[in-house]
Specification:
The structure holds 2 protein chains of 2 kinds.
Chain A: H1 3-10, H2 20-27, E1 29-41, H3 48-53, E2 56-67, E3 70-82, H4 85-91, H5 96-106, E4 114-119, E5 132-134, E6 139-143, H6 154-172, H7 176-182, H8 194-202, E7 209-218, E8 224-227, H9 230-244, E9 250-259, E10 268-270, E11 275-278, H10 284-294, E12 304-310, E13 319-321, E14 333-336, E15 340-344, E16 359-362, H11 365-379, E17 391-393, H12 403-434, H13 442-464, H14 467-485, H15 498-538
Parallel strand pairs in A: 1-3, 1-4, 4-6, 5-17, 7-9, 7-12, 8-16, 11-13, 12-15
Antiparallel strand pairs in A: 2-3, 5-6, 10-11, 14-15
Helix pairs in contact in A: 2-12, 4-5, 7-12, 9-11, 12-13, 12-14, 13-14
Chain B: H1 2-41, E1 60-61, H2 66-76, E2 84-85, E3 94-104, E4 110-120, H3 138-147, E5 149-158, H4 163-166, E6 176-183, H5 190-205, E7 217-218, E8 238-243, H6 250-258, H7 274-277, E9 282-293, E10 301-313, H8 315-318, E11 324-326, H9 327-331, E12 344-350, E13 360-363, E14 369-374, E15 377-385, E16 401-404, E17 416-423, E18 429-438, E19 445-453, E20 457-468, E21 471-472, E22 477-481, E23 490-498, E24 502-512, E25 528-530, E26 534-540, E27 567-573, E28 577-579, H10 588-612, H11 624-636
Parallel strand pairs in B: 3-12
Antiparallel strand pairs in B: 3-4, 4-10, 5-6, 5-9, 6-8, 7-8, 9-10, 11-16, 12-15, 13-16, 14-15, 17-18, 18-24, 19-23, 19-26, 20-21, 20-24, 22-23, 25-28, 26-27
Helix pairs in contact in B: 1-10, 3-5
Classes of the chains: A alpha/beta, B alpha+beta.
Chain lengths: 539, 641
C-alpha cells in the first residue's frame, strides 16, 4: 500500500507546463500583412471637383489561402491626398532622381509603407516611354495616362489608376510569389517550374546571423604574389549594404588567402581563343575540393557565405567560364545556391612573357567587389524581379540596396521566420506529447512560452503594419524556439522506451508466466471436458 | 505429478540457458557500443565541412546587375588602388619561416625537428577586431580572438622521450595531449571560456580534447609562466590540462598541416608523410601561439604561431644493420623547393660531435656552417639554405645523406633527468616515487616540480618525503591544492634545491578510490593513466646564453626566453603512470538480476502450484505386466482384468 505511491512518486518525470493550447492555435497560421500606401496627387492631375473629395481612405483586401492550415490576408490601406506645396516644389526638380531625393528629405516614410506620387502627363520628370519611376527609397512616381482626363468623378479617376497602382505595389511591396517562397518551410509545394525552384533555392535561409568569408585562392604562389586590399574594399563596398541590412541579420566579414588551392576540374584548352575554359556543366565539381580547405568559422555556427576569388596559375591562364550556350560569361563568375560565389580573375595580362617570377600583382578590388556584391544580393534573397514594361527602377545607391528592396526582404523574412518558428514549436510540442517520459525542464518551458509570446506579438505587429517590430519579434521567436528544440536534455535517446524496460524484467516475468499459463491451459481443458461430459449427459 | 515437475524444471533450465546466452550477447553488444562511442567521440571538426551531394549544386553564372556594376564603376574613381604590377614589394605585415634540424643521436637513431613560424604584426589583445588573414590560419585566429587567448600551447605526442639515450629535445612534451592556455585578463568567466575553447580545439585538431574538464584541469602557480611578452602573471587566467591516454595519429596530423600557409604542397612540409612519420619511436606535434616583441624596445607586439613537429626515427632496426640514413630513407621524399611564401627555409644538421668527419660523413657537403647556443651548449650545424637554387644542385633535388664511420663516442649525460614509478602492492594503497637526477658535477640548482594527480588516487600529503643523498631535503616552497571528488584533481607544486651530482627522491602515498560504475573507462582493466610530472628548471649553462631577442637566430634555439646569461630554462617530463584501480565485474548486476529473478520465479511457481492445485489420493497405477496383459486380452476380445 505504501509502496505503490512511493514508486509512483519516485519514478515520475518532471514535466514543466507548456502552453499547449496556444501552440495548437499556432498550427493554424492566419497571417495578415498590412501595408500603408499613400497616393499623392500632384497639381494638374485632378480637376477641382475631384479635389474636393480628397483626402479619402480606401482599404483593399486580398485573400491568399496557401493550404488548409495556412492562410494569408493582404491588406493595403490606401490614403489619397493632394500634394503639399513643398512636395510640389520637390516634384518640380529637373530629374526624377533629384525629385526622389528631395521628397525623401521632406518626410521619411516608415518601414513597410509606400508613397506613390501621381504626376501629370506633361511632367518632364520621366522620359517618354516610362510611366512609372521607382526611386531609391519608398517612393514611386506615377504618370497619369491620357484616358484619366475623361474621368469626371474621383471614383472614375481611381478606377483608372488602380491597375497601375497595383502593378507598382507588386514590384515594391510583398508579392504572392515571395510570400509563398518564404513559407516553403511550412508548406510542401508541388514542384513548379524548374526556374522558380532555382529562384527559391538560391537565397540562404533566414538566420539571425551570417558569416561572410572572402577567400583569395592562389594556386601558384611561385609565379604570382597577390595583394588584395580586402579590408578597404569590404569597408567601401560591402559594409554599407550590411549596415543597411543590420535589421535583418548580423553579419561578420572575414577574409583569408589560401595558397596551393586547386579547383576540382581541369580546364579545357580552347585553341580558337587561346584560352582555357570551364564549362557550365563542370562548375558543380569545382567547389568540393576547394571547400575542404575553406574551413568553417570555429567560433560561431551561423551559415557561411563563401566568396572565392580564384587567380588561375600561370600555366592555365587566361581562364574563362562558359555558359550553357558556349558563350563566355562577361563577369567570369558564378554562384552556387546557398553556398556562395566564385570569380575567376585572370592576371596574365598584367605581365609580359619575359616577366621575372614571382610577379607582384595588385588586384582591382572594384571589379571584384562589383561581382561579389551582386552575388551577395542574390544569396541574401534581395530579389531583383524584372520590372514590367514602362517601369524605370532607379539604380541603387551607395548602399547597394534600395529601401523598398529592404522592405520586401523584411516582409518575406518575417513571414519565413514566423513559419519556421511555428513549425519548430508545433513539432516540439508533438514530440513531447509522443514521448511521455522526456523531462521538460523549466528553462525549456520558458523558451517555449517566450517563443509563443514573440510569435503572437510578431503576428500582431504584422497585422498592424509595423514591419520593423514584426521582424524583431519573429527573430526572437525563432531563436527561442531553436534553443528549446535543440536543448541537449530533450534527446529522446536518453530515455528508455518501455519495451527496453520490460526486457529487464523478462527474467522475472517469463518464468512466472509458465505455471500461470500451464494452469490456465489446464483449466481450459478441464472446462472443455466438463462441457463435453455435460453434453454427453444431456444426450 | 513428478513428470510434470520434471518437465517444468527442464523448461526453466532451458530458459535460464537462453537468458544467460542473451546476457552474454548483450554484454558483448554493450562493449562494442562503448568502443564505437569512443571512436565517434573524436568529434567532427568544424573545419571539415560535410561534402554535399553534387546534384544539390546548381551553379549559375552570375549576371552582374547593371545597377550594381555601374555603381561599382562609380566607386572606381575614388578607389585608391589601380590595377598595376608593383615594382617594389609592399610592406608585408606577416612573415613565415621554416626550419628542419636533424641531430644524429648516439643510440643510432635520428632526431628530426621541424619548426614553422608565422609572425604577424597585429594586436589581438586590444579588442580590435582582426578578421583578415594572409599567412596566419583563419581558424586559429578566430579562436584566439573569440576566446581572448593570450597564449596557447598544445602538443600531441606519441611515445616517450628517452632523455638518457637521446639527450634533451629542443621542445619537450609529455606523452598524450597537453594543453595550457593563458587568457587575457578581460575574461570574466575563465572556466566557461576554457571549456568552450577545449571543445573548439578538439574540433580543429580532431582530438579528444573535449574530455578536458574540471577533473583534469589545474592552475599551476609557478611552473607555467607565460613564454611571450606578458606582465600579468596572475595564475587565475592560466589553465593546464593533460590527457595522457590520447593517441596521436594521422587524423591529428592532417589538420595540423592544414594550418601551414603552403600546406604540404611545397617546402619542408612535403616531407611530412604520415606513413613514415608514425613509423617511428617518438612523434610529437605542437602548436604554440604567443605574443612576442617586434623589436628590442618591445613597444609593440606581434603574434607568433610556432608549429613544431619532432620525430625520432629508429633507423638502426629498419636499416638492416647498416648505419646510414638520408632524407629519402626517413621521409620517402626528397626536397625540390622551398615554400615560396617563406622568408627563410633552412635545414640544420648537428655536426658538433663530428668536426673532422671521423664519426660520419655528410653528403652533399655544404660550405655553410652555423653556431648556435642550444640548451646550454654551443653546437655547430651544417646548414642547407633552401631559398638558394644552388642547394638543390644539378639534379634539382636535395637528399641529405649521412653515413656513419664508427659507432663509438659517448654522449654527455644530460644535466637534469627524471623518472617516476608507482610502488606498492594490492589494490588499496600505493606510493608514487619521483626521482630527479642532477648530473652536474659541482653546481646545485633549483627545480620546480609539478604533479597533477586525479582525484581517484587520494594522496596522503603527510607521507610526502623528499630525500637527496640520504638526507631530508626540505622544499623551500610547497603549493598544494587538495582534490575534490569528481570535481578537481590534486595539484602539488614544490621548489626543490638539487644538490650537485645527486638523486632526489620524492615519495608520496596514496589510496585508490572506488569509482562509480559509470566512471570506469571502456577497458578498466588496462588501468588509469596519471599524467606526467613536470619539472621546470633553470640549469646552469656551460657557455654564455644569448639574451638578445632581436638577434637573428635559428628557430629551435629561441623558444624559451632567456633572461640571464649564466643559465637556461629547461622542462623535463616524466613518464605517465598507469595505475590499476579496484575493478568490479561489470556483468554482475545483470547476473544478479537474472539469478534472483529465476529463484523468485521458481519459488513463486511452487507456491502457486501448492495454492491452486487440489490434491487427491489417486488409485495406484496398474503394474506394467497387468497393462500388457490387458492389451493382449483386448486383442483377443476377452474382457480386461
Amino acid at each position: 500500500m505504501v509502496g505503490v505511491p512511493l514508486w509512483w512518486k519516485t519514478t515520475e518525470t518532471y514535466r514543466a507546463w507548456l502552453p499547449v493550447s496556444q501552440i495548437r492555435e499556432l498550427e493554424k497560421l492566419q497571417l495578415q500583412l498590412s501595408a500603408d500606401v499613400e497616393v499623392v496627387f500632384a497639381r494638374g492631375t485632378m480637376i477641382p471637383e475631384q479635389q474636393k473629395k480628397v483626402p479619402l481612405t480606401q482599404t483593399h483586401e486580398e485573400d491568399h489561402a496557401v493550404d488548409e492550415d495556412t492562410a494569408l490576408k493582404y491588406r493595403y490601406e490606401t490614403k489619397y491626398r493632394t500634394a503639399t506645396i513643398m512636395e510640389e516644389d520637390a516634384l518640380n526638380k529637373p530629374t526624377a532622381a533629384q525629385a526622389d531625393l528631395s521628397l525623401h528629405m521632406l518626410s521619411e516614410s516608415p518601414c513597410g509603407s509606400l508613397v506613390i506620387y501621381v504626376i501629370p502627363e506633361s511632367s518632364p520628370l520621366l522620359p517618354e516611354d516610362v510611366n512609372v519611376y521607382i526611386g531609391q527609397r519608398r517612393t514611386a512616381l506615377l504618370r497619369v495616362g491620357a484616358q484619366t482626363r475623361t474621368a469626371k468623378t474621383i471614383e472614375q479617376l481611381l478606377d483608372h489608376l488602380q491597375p497601375q497602382i497595383k502593378e507598382v505595389l507588386r514590384v515594391m511591396s510583398f508579392s504572392r510569389a515571395d510570400i509563398t517562397a518564404a513559407l516553403s518551410d511550412r508548406v510542401r509545394f508541388h514542384p513548379g517550374s524548374k526556374e522558380s525552384i532555382a529562384d527559391n533555392m538560391r537565397a540562404f535561409k533566414s538566420s539571425p546571423g551570417y558569416e561572410i568569408t572572402f577567400s583569395l585562392l592562389n594556386p601558384d604562389p611561385k609565379s604570382h604574389r597577390l595583394h588584395w586590399d580586402i579590408e578597404g574594399a569590404a569597408e567601401t563596398y560591402i559594409q554599407p549594404l550590411l549596415t543597411k541590412m543590420s535589421a535583418v541579420a548580423n553579419f561578420s566579414i572575414d577574409s583569408q588567402t589560401l595558397h596551393y588551392a586547386m579547383l576540382g576540374v581541369n580546364p579545357r584548352y580552347d585553341s580558337s581563343r587561346s584560352a582555357y575554359t570551364l564549362n557550365a556543366d563542370s562548375l558543380a565539381h569545382v567547389i568540393n575540393p576547394v571547400e575542404a580547405r575553406l574551413g568553417s568559422n570555429a567560433a560561431s555556427s551561423n551559415p557561411v557565405l563563401n566568396f572565392l576569388l580564384y587567380v588561375p596559375d600561370a600555366h592555365h591562364s587566361p581562364l574563362y567560364i562558359q555558359d550553357h550556350h558556349k558563350q563566355e560569361v562577361p563577369s567570369n563568375a558564378f554562384h552556387s545556391p546557398r553556398w556562395g560565389g566564385i570569380m575567376v580573375y585572370n592576371v596574365d595580362g598584367y605581365y609580359g612573357p619575359e616577366a621575372e617570377f614571382p610577379v607582384d600583382i595588385n588586384i582591382n578590388m572594384a571589379k571584384v567587389m562589383g561581382v561579389f556584391l551582386a552575388q551577395l544580393r542574390l544569396l541574401l534573397g534581395v530579389q531583383s524581379s524584372a520590372a514590367p514594361p514602362g517601369f524605370l527602377v532607379a539604380p541603387c545607391g551607395t548602399a547597394g540596396l534600395a529601401d523598398w528592396e529592404l522592405d520586401r526582404l523584411m516582409w518575406s523574412r518575417s513571414v519565413e521566420n514566423i513559419a519556421t518558428a511555428t513549425t519548430t514549436i508545433t513539432s516540439l510540442a508533438q514530440l513531447l506529447d509522443q514521448i511521455g517520459n522526456i523531462v521538460i525542464n523549466d528553462n525549456i518551458a520558458e523558451q517555449v512560452s517566450s517563443a509563443v509570446t514573440s510569435l503572437q506579438l510578431a503576428v500582431a505587429e504584422l497585422e498592424a503594419g509595423n514591419l520593423g517590430f514584426a521582424l524583431q519579434f519573429s527573430k526572437e521567436a525563432i531563436m527561442a524556439s531553436e534553443k528549446a528544440f535543440f536543448d541537449p536534455s530533450l534527446l529522446h535517446l536518453l530515455y528508455f522506451p518501455d519495451d527496453q524496460k520490460f526486457a529487464i524484467y523478462i527474467p522475472l516475468f517469463l518464468p512466472m508466466c509458465v505455471p500461470i499459463l500451464l494452469s490456465l491451459l489446464k483449466m481450459a481443458s478441464e472446462a472443455r471436458k466438463k462441457r463435453r461430459e455435460k453434453q454427453a449427459k444431456k444426450d | 505429478m513428478a513428470a510434470y515437475r520434471c518437465s517444468l524444471c527442464a523448461r526453466l533450465l532451458l530458459l535460464l540457458i537462453l537468458l544467460l546466452y542473451a546476457l552474454v550477447h548483450s554484454e558483448e553488444i554493450k562493449q562494442g557500443n562503448i568502443h564505437h562511442v569512443r571512436g565517434v567521440n573524436k568529434p567532427q571538426t568544424p573545419a571539415e565541412t560535410v561534402e554535399r551531394p553534387l546534384e544539390e549544386r546548381q551553379c549559375e553564372a552570375t549576371e552582374v546587375n547593371e545597377a550594381v556594376s555601374s555603381d561599382a564603376a562609380a566607386h572606381l574613381q575614388d578607389y585608391p588602388g589601380p590595377d598595376s604590377v608593383l615594382t617594389s614589394t609592399p610592406q608585408l605585415k606577416d612573415d613565415f619561416r621554416e626550419e628542419l634540424v636533424i641531430r644524429p643521436l648516439h643510440s643510432g637513431d635520428i632526431y628530426a625537428s621541424f619548426q614553422f613560424r608565422t609572425v604577424w604584426e597585429t594586436d589581438f589583445t586590444r579588442g580590435s577586431k582582426v578578421s583578415h588573414y594572409r599567412l596566419f590560419p583563419k581558424s586559429l585566429g578566430q579562436v584566439i580572438s573569440k576566446f581572448s587567448v593570450r597564449e596557447l600551447h598544445i602538443s600531441f605526442t606519441q611515445g616517450y622521450w628517452r632523455t638518457m639515450q637521446w639527450g634533451q629535445p629542443y621542445l619537450p612534451s609529455p606523452p598524450g595531449a597537453e594543453l595550457w592556455v593563458w587568457f587575457q585578463d578581460t575574461v570574466t568567466d575563465v572556466d566557461a571560456t576554457w571549456k568552450e575553447l577545449t571543445n573548439v580545439l578538439s574540433g580543429i585538431f580532431c582530438a579528444s580534447l573535449n574530455f578536458i574538464d574540471s577533473t583534469n584541469t589545474v592552475q599551476p602557480s609557478a611552473s607555467f609562466k607565460p613564454l611571450g611578452t606578458a606582465n600579468g602573471t596572475d595564475h587565475r587566467f592560466l589553465r593546464y590540462a593533460t590527457l595522457p591516454r590520447e593517441i596521436v595519429c594521422t587524423e591529428n596530423l592532417t589538420p595540423w598541416k592544414k594550418l601551414l600557409p603552403c600546406g604540404s604542397k611545397a617546402g619542408l612540409a612535403v616531407l611530412l608523410k604520415s606513413e613514415k612519420l608514425f613509423h617511428s619511436s617518438f612523434h610529437s606535434q605542437a602548436v604554440h601561439i604567443r605574443p612576442v616583441c617586434q623589436d628590442w624596445h618591445c613597444k609593440t607586439t606581434s603574434l607568433e604561431l610556432r608549429q613544431t613537429l619532432n620525430v625520432v626515427f629508429d633507423l638502426h632496426t629498419s636499416g638492416q644493420g647498416k648505419r646510414e640514413w638520408s632524407l629519402f630513407k626517413m621521409f620517402s621524399r626528397t626536397l625540390t623547393e622551398s615554400c615560396p611564401l617563406a622568408s627563410s627555409s633552412k635545414i640544420y644538421i648537428d655536426t658538433t660531435d663530428n668536426p673532422q668527419e671521423e664519426q660520419f660523413e655528410l653528403s652533399p657537403a655544404t660550405p655553410l656552417l652555423s653556431q648556435a647556443v642550444v640548451l646550454g651548449d654551443r653546437r655547430t650545424f651544417s646548414v642547407y639554405d633552401l631559398t638558394q637554387q644552388v642547394t638543390f644542385g644539378t639534379v634539382r633535388s636535395l637528399n641529405v645523406l649521412i653515413r656513419w664511420k664508427s659507432t663509438e663516442g659517448d654522449m654527455l649525460r644530460p644535466l637534469l633527468h627524471a623518472e617516476r614509478y608507482v610502488a606498492g602492492y594490492g589494490l588499496q594503497t600505493g606510493e608514487i616515487h619521483t626521482l630527479i637526477y642532477n648530473n652536474h658535477p659541482f653546481r646545485s640548482f633549483p627545480v620546480l616540480l609539478l604533479d597533477s594527480v586525479p582525484w581517484y588516487l587520494r594522496l596522503y600529503v603527510h607521507t610526502l618525503t623528499v630525500t637527496s643523498k640520504g638526507k631530508d631535503n626540505k622544499p623551500s616552497y610547497i603549493h598544494y591544492q587538495p582534490s575534490k571528488d569528481r570535481i578537481r584533481p590534486h595539484l602539488l607544486e614544490m621548489l626543490l634545491q638539487l644538490p650537485p651530482h645527486s638523486v632526489t627522491e620524492v615519495t608520496v602515498q596514496f589510496e585508490r578510490a572506488l569509482l562509480k560504475w559509470t566512471e570506469y573507462t571502456p577497458d578498466p582493466n588496462h588501468g588509469f593513466y596519471v599524467g606526467s610530472s613536470v619539472i621546470s628548471a633553470l640549469v646552469p649553462s656551460t657557455v654564455a646564453m644569448s639574451t638578445n631577442i632581436t638577434q637573428e637566430q635559428p628557430l629551435f634555439s629561441t623558444f624559451f626566453p632567456c633572461k640571464e646569461e649564466s643559465n637556461y630554462f629547461m622542462r623535463v617530463y616524466t613518464e605517465p603512470l598507469l595505475v590499476n584501480l579496484p575493478t568490479p565485474d561489470f556483468s554482475m548486476p545483470y547476473n544478479v538480476i537474472c539469478l534472483t529473478c529465476t529463484v523468485v520465479a521458481v519459488g513463486y511457481g511452487s507456491l502457486y502450484n501448492l495454492l491452486t492445485r487440489s490434491f487427491q489420493i489417486e488409485e495406484p497405477n496398474p503394474g506394467l505386466a497387468k497393462r500388457i496383459a490387458n492389451v493382449i486380452r483386448k486383442m483377443r476380445g476377452v474382457p480386461p482384468l
